[in-house]
Design brief:
Helices cover 43% and strands 21% of the residues. It has 330 residues and is α/β, with parallel strands linked by helices. The chain folds into two domains: 152 residues, Nucleotidyltransferase, domain 5, CATH 3.30.420; 159 residues, ATPase, nucleotide binding domain (Nucleotidyltransferase, domain 5, 2-Layer Sandwich), CATH 3.30.420.40. The strands form three sheets. Strands 3-2-1-4-5 form a five-stranded mixed beta sheet, with helices on both faces. Strand 9 and strand 10 form a beta hairpin. The longest helix has 27 residues. The two termini are 19 Å apart. The relative contact order is 0.19. It binds adenosine-5'-triphosphate and fe (ii) ion. The site of fe (ii) ion (FE2) has 5 residues, from helix 3.
Length: 330
């Protein structure tokens, strides 16, 4: 079976094509075009225009790389939730049109769960605690009784959003996380910052204001601030992840989401796991950031479990949370 996955929740328009045979999954193509900016943040209408502009070329390229024709596709999956209404609509329209004209079944998937399912597939991590860290989301998740339960999460902005907003102030453009990682490597001087863990939850808004104020004062270097913000926010994430391991008795941690590309975060999670006899898992970067392959992977699982969507019901759900999705494929 060949499944096409369409990702359009935010900055990335991505198409992934997977092929499954006798329980083996092969990723044939994973093509994406990312909206970037030098000065401003993400303006939804502008990103939607970007997706309209690139969707056909991304699709054609994915067919070429996968070496298949349109008619070979058996199932179409698209990111139905959560995300920016403007951009979700582009992917949904693309998927509905395709399903209607080619008479193919359609599946709508939750983007956050797709991040997790591709990680489980690629790393083979068995029943892990999942640390899902991206621009909009920061959640510590574990599967229990037909739902992905959220054990802890951000009380305000996502950790990636915190890094991106600070990077914008430094004039580094979007996405800023990778650039902060590079600057942080040039320092080892820790500047004390607020450390905000509340029970199993975290918060980044106050830290962001604090580093913005410190930078604007001119008393601190970019490098030292980048190093210090990484050390602080990643320690917070490691703390709640470790507590989730302790509470649930699980022994594996799976990293997911764009911020998990950060080598320092991977290292810190690895050290924590080692110290308590647990194991950490992390797929390669192209499957951590937003991508179409993960939408295809979850689409296939959901299709097999009978979750086909009627075209007229394929409307977007910008606010659907990870723990609201009924998981009938595990
Ligand atoms: P979601 O909808 O799941 O919240 P997203 O739209 O934020 O996802 P992702 O591609 O999962 O998209 O994550 C993007 C985020 O990851 C951005 O905030 C970006 O700065 C951050 N990021 C990417 N690489 C790194 C890195 N090396 N270090 C830190 N952050 C990174
Ligand atoms: Fe994402």
């Amino acid at each position: 079976m060949i499944v096409l996955g369409i990702e359009s929740t935010a900055h990335t328009f991505g198409i992934g094509i997977i092929k499954t045979e006798a329980n083996k999954t092969k990723i044939l193509a994973n093509v994406k075009d990312i909206y970037t900016t030098q000065k401003e943040g993400i303006i939804p209408a502008k990103v939607a225009d970007h997706h309209v502009e690139v969707c056909d070329s991304v699709f054609q390229k994915s067919l070429e790389i996968a070496k298949i024709k349109k008619k070979d596709i058996d199932v179409i999956a698209f990111s139905q939730s959560p995300g920016l209404g403007h951009t979700l609509r582009i992917g949904a329209m693309f998927a509905r049109t395709f399903a209607a004209t080619l008479h193919k079944p359609l599946v709508g998937v939750n983007h956050c769960i797709a991040h997790l399912e591709i990680g489980r597939l690629l790393t083979k991590a068995k029943d892990p605690i999942m640390l899902y860290v991206s621009g909009a989301n920061t959640q510590v998740i574990a599967y229990e009784a037909e739902k992905y339960r959220i054990f802890g999460e951000t009380l305000d902005i996502g950790v990636g959003n915190c890094l991106d907003t600070f990077a914008r102030l430094l004039g580094l453009g979007f996405p800023g996380g990778p650039k902060i990682e590079q600057l942080a490597k040039k320092s080892s001087k820790y500047i004390a910052l607020p450390y905000v863990v509340k029970g199993m939850d975290v918060s980044f808004g106050g830290i962001l204001t604090n580093i913005q104020t410190k930078f604007s004062s001119g008393e601190f270097s970019k490098e030292d601030l980048c190093y210090s913000v990484q050390e602080t926010v990643f320690s917070m994430l490691v703390e709640v992840t470790e507590r989730a391991l302790a509470h649930t008795g699980k022994t594996k941690v799976l990293l997911a989401g764009g911020v998990a590309c950060n080598k320092r975060l991977q290292q810190m999670v690895g050290v924590m796991c080692k110290e308590r006899g647990a194991t950490s898992y992390c797929p390669e970067n192209q499957y951590l950031v937003d991508n179409g392959a993960m939408i295809a992977v979850l689409g296939k699982l959901m299709y097999d479990a009978g979750n086909e969507l009627q075209i007229e019901k394929a409307i977007i759900e910008p606010y659907l949370r990870t723990d609201e999705v009924f998981v009938n494929w595990r």
